[in-house]
Specification:
Length: 350
């Protein structure tokens, strides 16, 4: 009886040991396949711009932008950090240098480069800042000048942001709602062309943002007293994101996964935070922290006597949105926390 019991105990211990060893082997395989990226290259708009937009343009370089980080305006469209900073952190890198500073802070070229400009799109949406095609031209020129080598590129990640400026520009030019679906298709098609072009320059892992719920931005919820999202805009966003996912699936099939194109789901990440703000210590989900004192002014506006024409909330760290269009640092951190559990971010590492 005792011998039988000992035999069962021995078998149990052996089984546990094999299970533990199996687990260690799986972990070792995961560690073996984990990739250590050396650089991050960023293309797009104000959601990822960390300083390229000109100082004489509205926002980003004006007070009160940057009051949370780094404590003064530094070219980010937020009171602090933006998506780029959190993706760089995820990769174990410092946030890459803005393109316009490349000749002044050369030692920071080793982390990659940020080519994004606020207000831009895949098409021409700004008379002062370059669209994504031109941003990629800048990248190509640096490669031609041997600023970055083939080895640099093969061990790098590209982050591409399309946050809706093309659609704002379309509406501003009196584009019709009826024509929106075909225009959305053209934006997604041009985005796919841009992704392939970045891949052709040697980058092996390319991440593109899905469109955030535009109907939830304060500029679109102001008429609803900042209480709920505009469903009409969000329906159009869903069309954009569906087409983008289809395009990215096709790109991965065409390249036979030699390059992995990955979509970051900002839509669900934003909504998850906005629907459950207290989970991320957010108290003001829809109301922006910084607003103009009237409709003719925006965050950061001053009059001819440099008198402020805006007001800032008492607790920026508890507001999801910083201004009418952009998340606060707290908002981006909450979105990043949601993204960390997503399959997409894990795909970047392996």
């Amino acid at each position: 009886m005792m011998n039988s019991h000992n035999q069962q105990l021995s078998l149990l211990c052996l089984s546990l040991a094999l299970l533990l060893l199996s687990g260690l082997r799986v972990e070792a395989r995961l560690q073996h396949h984990a990739t250590s990226y050396q650089k991050l290259f960023v293309f797009g708009d104000s959601y990822v711009d960390t300083g390229n937009t000109r100082i004489d343009q509205p926002g980003s370089w004006k007070n009160p932008y940057g009051i949370t980080f780094p404590g003064k305006p530094a070219g980010r469209f937020s009171d602090g950090r933006v998506l780029t900073d959190y993706i760089a952190k995820f990769l174990g890198l410092k946030s890459p240098l803005p393109y316009k500073f490349r000749k002044f802070i050369a030692q920071n070229l080793k982390y990659g480069m940020n080519f994004a400009y606020g207000g831009t799109g895949v098409f021409d949406t700004s008379s002062k800042n370059p669209n994504m095609t031109i941003q990629i031209d800048f990248f190509k020129q640096l490669i031609k000048e041997n600023v970055y080598t083939a080895s640099d590129l093969s061990n790098s990640v590209a982050l591409v942001s399309v946050a809706g400026n093309d659609y704002n520009f379309y509406l501003a030019r009196n584009g019709s709602i009826q024509g929106f679906p075909s225009f959305i298709a053209s934006v997604v098609n041009q985005t796919a062309i841009n992704l392939l072009r970045i891949q052709s320059l040697g980058v092996k892992k390319i991440v593109v943002d899905g469109l955030q719920p535009l109907g939830c931005l304060p500029g679109n919820t102001a008429s609803l007293s900042f209480q709920k999202c505009n469903s009409t805009f969000n329906d159009l966003v869903l069309l954009h994101n569906n087409l983008l996912n289809q395009a990215v699936t096709k790109l991965n099939q065409q390249t036979k996964n030699q390059t992995t194109f990955i979509v970051l789901d900002l839509y669900d990440s934003f909504l998850s935070v906005l629907n459950n703000p207290s989970n991320n210590n957010i108290k003001d989900a829809f109301k922006p922290c910084c607003v103009g004192i009237s409709s003719q002014y925006s965050c950061g506006s001053v009059d001819e006597n440099n008198v402020k024409k805006y007001k800032v909330c008492d607790h920026p760290k508890s507001a999801f949105f910083w201004d009418l269009l952009h998340p606060s640092q707290a908002g981006w951190l909450a979105v990043y926390n949601e993204l960390q559990t997503s399959k997409a971010l894990q795909q970047i590492r392996y």
